[in-house]
């Protein structure tokens, strides 16, 4: 049972007699969807969700808070009164600092111990601040991972004149898009030769780069940051590059990757590797009754994957066998500065054994990479109407070499048929 304590938290000693007691750690995509799935399969069980966050919010749209399109409340992706509706007890603003799998318990940062029968770890990841001189010690250096980051960026960016974003991946471009209309001088520093190198080829990336430059963003490619120059109070003054150039900045937004939140697992029987916690297709760790999902594994850092992993893990925790094997993990959709794009898989040919077909029509751009009739990657930019067909081709493993028409002219009728009994087949 859960007994309310004087400090407003809950002391969990296990479920009511004969009922399962579940604990979920983390209130983002994997944790929220995992908790909801647990309730759907377990109508009377005790379900406790513990989170360091005091709000539920989507990290994917934090830039909408920066640009003013959404309030903090608008970032919440759950239904109204989610925790009451699903009878989930929420311990918010508390961090799990230790887990004892053998004792089926976790310890919070206030010393409280909570017992569980099965637990889902969905603690996500944190922003990685690279080891550049002065960067980790300076004030006004922040990632864009948590709501606190977005609050800090909005506060500081409205007071300064020069802002540098480190890293041209999805989070870095989110940061640029979120503050591009602020009255600031905005610069991007990227080691690679383009933005979004994992999602876009040179042509598709260049279209976004032109849009950013048209909005006054100073783009720096193929360079490294060597030192953050700070004043006597450790406030940023300029960022020095390996070329010797110094870019003025009073705020640095570091978007150079994330690291899984697994510190509380140190010294336990839950095995981790360099990416994060190791899980199988059922979301199980190698510790009994300990499951994990989302960015804590460090392997598929996109929202839909975290949602699916949370659902799969919770299903197996409930005795409903399910496997993580029916999604395309490298799908990305984006729409920066009014230009929508979808990319899947590899975006450049790994070698000459692969073939590619490209179609450019005005503002629309399509590219497919395939080998032996199997599609390994694609980019669609501008008109995304072909995205549904393309996704289905990949999902159903359609051999495109058997389609006797240009790839970009394929429609569902080319691979979607009805049997005599009216059953749909591919």
UniProtKB/TrEMBL annotation:
Its EC number is 1.18.1.1. This is Nitrate reductase, NADH oxidase subunit. Its cofactor is FAD. Residues 332-397 form the NADH-rubredoxin oxidoreductase C-terminal domain. InterPro entries: FAD-bd_OxRdtase, FAD/NAD-bd_sf, FAD/NAD-binding_dom, FAD/NAD-linked_Rdtase_dimer_sf, Rubredoxin_C. Keywords: FAD, Flavoprotein, Oxidoreductase. It comes from Clostridium disporicum. It holds the Pfam family Pyr_redox_2. SUPFAM superfamilies: FAD/NAD(P)-binding domain. Residues 21-310 form the FAD/NAD(P)-binding domain. GO terms for molecular function: rubredoxin-NAD+ reductase activity.
């Amino acid at each position: 049972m859960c007994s309310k304590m004087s400090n407003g938290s809950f002391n969990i000693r296990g479920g009511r007699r004969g009922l399962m007691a579940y604990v979920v750690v983390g209130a983002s995509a994997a944790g929220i969807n995992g908790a909801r799935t647990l309730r759907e399969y377990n109508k009377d069980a005790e379900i406790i969700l513990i989170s360091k966050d005091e709000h539920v919010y989507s990290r994917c749209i934090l830039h909408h808070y920066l640009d003013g399109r959404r309030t903090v409340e608008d970032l919440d992706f759950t239904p109204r009164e989610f925790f009451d509706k699903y009878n989930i007890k929420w311990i918010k603003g508390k961090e799990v600092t230790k887990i004892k799998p053998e004792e089926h318990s976790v310890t919070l940062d206030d010393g409280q111990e909570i017992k569980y029968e099965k637990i889902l770890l969905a603690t996500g990841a944190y922003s990685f601040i690279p080891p550049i001189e002065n960067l980790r010690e300076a004030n006004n250096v922040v990632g864009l991972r948590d709501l606190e980051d977005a609050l800090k960026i909005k506060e500081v960016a409205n007071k300064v004149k020069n802002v540098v974003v480190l890293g041209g991946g999805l989070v870095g471009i989110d940061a640029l898009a979120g503050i591009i209309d602020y009255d600031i001088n905005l610069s991007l520093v990227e080691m690679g030769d383009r933005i979004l190198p994992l999602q876009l080829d040179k042509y598709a990336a260049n279209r976004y780069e032109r849009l950013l430059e048209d909005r006054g963003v100073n783009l720096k490619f193929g360079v490294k940051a060597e030192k953050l120059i700070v004043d006597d109070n450790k406030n940023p003054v300029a960022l020095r590059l390996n070329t010797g150039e110094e870019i003025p900045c009073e705020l640095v937004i570091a978007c150079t990757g994330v690291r899984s939140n697994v510190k509380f697992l140190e010294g336990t029987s839950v095995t981790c590797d360099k990416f994060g916690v190791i899980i199988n297709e059922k979301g199980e760790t190698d510790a009994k009754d300990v499951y994990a999902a989302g960015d804590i594994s460090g392997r598929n850092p996109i929202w839909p994957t975290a949602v699916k992993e949370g659902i799969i893990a919770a299903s197996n925790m409930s005795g409903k066998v399910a496997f993580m094997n029916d999604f395309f993990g490298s799908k990305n959709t984006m729409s920066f500065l009014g230009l929508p794009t979808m990319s899947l898989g590899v975006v450049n040919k790994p070698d000459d054994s692969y073939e590619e077909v490209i179609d450019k029509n005005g503002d629309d751009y399509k590219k497919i990479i395939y080998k032996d009739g199997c599609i390994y990657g694609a980019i669609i930019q501008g008109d995304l109407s072909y995205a549904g067909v393309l996704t289905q081709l990949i999902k159903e493993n359609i051999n495109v070499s058997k389609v006797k028409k240009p790839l970009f002219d394929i429609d569902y009728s080319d691979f979607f048929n009805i049997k005599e009994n009216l059953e749909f087949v591919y």
